[in-house]
């Protein structure tokens, strides 16, 4: 779209100036964008070069800083760090890939199905006021941090004082230690539930905004032709939502190797006996950096490198597929 | 659409709407479902508020409960009495830190995002292609946590500074694209051309002509940033060491609260006398409430800006 605009603008009389020198105007625009450019170099591009740690055998040089050690004291080691991930540490690696991808697949599917369904339903509500109020309430979790949500969960699941255990006690049951190994079977459900709880309201509003943008006369015409409410949804609303659903889908697939760190780390209170449930790539990297007395930087960086490269590839592949199916909907 | 302007259309429009709506029974089912969902989203907040106003004894007796055995404001009084080494209440300090970070970060972020968005929206800019790549690549590829951490701590020396909480979050390609799309679609080229003819520099055109008519988009971005900064605990857990209590934003006080309550209690002269009565259970919930209340009361007013931001953002580049 941008390219098209640009072409139009150039067609509109500025073609002559196509091959021109760097004008004063360009220079002023360059100055205007300089701070942001510097920000991008410092906070986005320098870290990309940092990925070379993944190909080095990091050794500390006593008395020198990290960077000095990295460049002058650490030998290149090719793919050794990656071999570690897949040979010596196999179970952890399989576990973290399984969790990262598994949860994301569930989140992507539910994250499209549930909000679209709810958006269509809330749009059908007869009372506009009720729709408005419930929508505002459902938007609330989006504005809360995972730390706060972690305490909400704790209020329900705390072993001694939690509401759930107190209810179990009052029904003469045996309380469950929710944050320990015995409750491990429940946690995948909890995590999926919490993710949906926090994101559904927000996504629903995104889809609702697109539904509101659909031309009312389409529905009127359909109704005159005798289409039922379900048929109107099936043949008008859903096709009209296709583009935005596809865009949300690609963006989610592109992030399939990332995980919502706060969800996995904070709501489980980083409990050691539950680790196999919430160990994702991000949690692995964070834990090995901050909760490991002897972090091995090569391995951590290797995991990060895999995450970045695989994420980039999935995004490009997903976009290519979408481009094949429907050119208009592709992201780039 | 034109329903407000034309009265006959309004009648037929609403009539049509009434005719083409779901059955009464379906409507009741839907209404109940959405009321339940709304409750599901709000109840935990209410629950935590109730807990924070329970007495510690009540927690011991009935646990965390919607109907505490005894109400009390002890938690808030203790939170108020917890002082840091300068004699300022710790929570007030953290609250101010959070506000300061949010304000500075939002302003800085707005500057970075809007200038880049504006530059990218100029069709004749010579470096446009290069800049588009500059902001596009980080959207699909990033250096990962370790190298980011190394750059920020070793090269930029951000560890244990407020800047570590501000700088890494203040710009993002997604916002830049939202801003650029807004400038492209809503700011007429004629305005910028007229500025040029009058001999204004690009900076002056941007500040005096473009920004004043871009307030809706700026407000949207500002809100995204504000909530991101207010809710951030991750940057603090990366870059603030756990003994730097004065640098803690509110969310990070919450992260560290188990350790903190002990630390604060030990550090506090006035409280050492009745240390055993420390309401640690209700106190953490009180701090949760303090960090949530500003959001709860402000977001319904700003919700529409979020929605407009979402819909601008959905327009791809």
CATH architecture descriptor text of the domain at 109-233 and 260-305 in chain A: Orthogonal Bundle
Please state the structural category of chain A. Answer: mainly alpha
Q: Which structural category do the helix and sheet elements of chain B fall into?
A: mainly alpha
Global morphology of chain A: globular
* Spatial separation of the terminal alpha carbons of chain A: 10 Å
Low-confidence stretches of chain B: 1-13
Alpha carbon gyration radius of chain B? 26 Å
What is the CATH top level name of the largest domain in chain B? Mainly Alpha
- DSSP summary, beta strand count of chain A: 2
List the helices and strands of chain B in order: HHHHHHHHHHHHHHHH
Number of self-contained structural domains of chain B: 2
Main sheet specs of chain B: none
């Amino acid at each position: 779209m941008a390219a098209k605009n640009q072409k139009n603008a150039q067609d509109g009389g500025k073609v002559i100036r196509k091959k021109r020198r760097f004008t004063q105007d360009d220079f002023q625009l360059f100055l205007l964008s300089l701070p942001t450019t510097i920000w991008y170099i410092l906070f986005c591009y320098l870290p990309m070069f940092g990925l070379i740690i993944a190909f080095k055998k990091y050794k500390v040089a006593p008395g020198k800083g990290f960077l000095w050690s990295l460049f002058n004291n650490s030998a290149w080691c090719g793919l050794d760090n990656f071999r570690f991930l897949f040979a010596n540490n196999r179970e952890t690696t399989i576990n973290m890939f399984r969790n990262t991808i598994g949860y994301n697949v569930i989140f992507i599917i539910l994250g499209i199905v549930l909000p679209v369904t709810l958006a269509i339903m809330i749009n059908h509500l007869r009372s506009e006021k009720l729709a408005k109020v419930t929508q505002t309430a459902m938007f609330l979790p989006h504005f809360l941090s995972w730390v706060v949500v972690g305490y909400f969960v704790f209020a329900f699941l705390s072993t001694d004082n939690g509401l759930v255990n107190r209810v179990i006690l009052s029904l003469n049951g045996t309380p469950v230690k929710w944050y320990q190994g015995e409750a491990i079977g429940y946690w995948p459900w909890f995590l999926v539930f919490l993710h949906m709880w926090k994101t559904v309201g927000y996504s629903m509003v995104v889809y609702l905004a697109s539904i509101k943008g659909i031309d009312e006369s389409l529905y009127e015409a359909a109704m005159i032709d005798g289409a039922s409410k379900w048929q109107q949804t099936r043949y008008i609303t859903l096709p009209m939502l296709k583009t935005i659903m596809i865009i949300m889908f690609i963006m989610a697939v592109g992030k399939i190797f990332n995980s919502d760190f706060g969800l996995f780390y904070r709501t489980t209170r980083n409990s050691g006996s539950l680790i196999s449930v919430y160990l994702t790539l991000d949690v692995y990297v964070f834990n090995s950096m901050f909760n490991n007395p002897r972090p091995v930087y090569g391995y951590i960086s290797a995991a990060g490198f895999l995450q970045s490269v695989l994420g980039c590839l999935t995004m490009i592949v997903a976009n290519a597929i979408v481009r094949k199916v429907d050119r208009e909907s592709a992201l780039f | 659409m034109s329903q407000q302007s034309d009265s006959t259309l309004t009648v037929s429009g609403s009539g049509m709407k009434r005719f083409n709506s779901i059955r009464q029974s379906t409507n009741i089912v839907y209404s109940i479902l959405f009321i339940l969902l709304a409750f599901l989203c709000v109840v935990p907040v209410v629950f935590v508020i109730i807990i924070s106003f329970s007495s510690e004894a009540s927690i011991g007796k009935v646990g965390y409960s919607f109907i505490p055995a005894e109400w009390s404001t002890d938690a808030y009084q203790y939170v108020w009495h917890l002082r840091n080494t300068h004699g300022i209440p710790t929570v007030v300090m953290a609250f101010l830190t959070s506000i300061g970070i949010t304000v500075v970060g939002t302003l800085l972020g707005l500057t970075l995002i809007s200038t880049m968005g504006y530059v990218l929206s100029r069709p004749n800019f010579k470096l446009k292609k290069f800049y588009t790549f500059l902001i596009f690549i980080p959207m699909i590829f990033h250096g990962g946590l370790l190298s980011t951490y190394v750059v920020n701590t070793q090269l930029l020396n951000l560890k244990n500074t407020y800047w570590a909480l501000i700088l890494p979050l203040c710009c993002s390609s997604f916002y830049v694209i939202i801003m650029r799309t807004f400038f492209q679609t809503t700011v007429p080229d004629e305005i910028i051309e007229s500025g040029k003819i009058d001999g204004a520099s690009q900076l002056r055109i941007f500040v005096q002509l473009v920004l004043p008519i871009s307030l809706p988009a700026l407000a949207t971005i500002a809100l995204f940033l504000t909530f991101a900064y207010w809710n951030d605990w991750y940057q603090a857990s990366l870059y603030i060491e756990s003994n730097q209590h004065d640098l803690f934003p509110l969310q990070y006080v919450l992260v560290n609260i188990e350790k903190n309550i002990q630390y604060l209690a030990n550090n506090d002269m006035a409280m050492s006398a009745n240390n055993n009565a420390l309401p640690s259970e209700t106190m953490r919930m009180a701090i949760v409430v303090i960090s949530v209340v500003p959001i709860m009361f402000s977001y319904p007013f700003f919700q529409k800006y979020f929605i407009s931001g979402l819909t601008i953002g959905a327009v791809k580049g």
